[in-house]
From TrEMBL:
It comes from the Bacteria. InterPro entries: DUF5133 (IPR033457). It comes from Streptomyces lycii. This is DUF5133 domain-containing protein. Pfam families: DUF5133.
Amino acid sequence: MLMAHPAVLRNLVEQYETLEILGAEAGSPAVRQRLADVAYSLCVATGTRDVDAALVAARHGLPGARAGDDSLLSV
């Protein structure tokens, strides 16, 4: 499977995390749509169907990622 460039993955993860921190889920329709768009892009870029799995896959695709990063056991 092709994987997105690490810079693209990093950007998408940062956008998603920022929108979550800012409470985008409770924001305006435009902000909620942006969160949904970024989540969708993460899923497409990582070949997953769930944003949580996409975040794990994206973080593992970044330079310097360790095998234990984002372990599903810590969720």
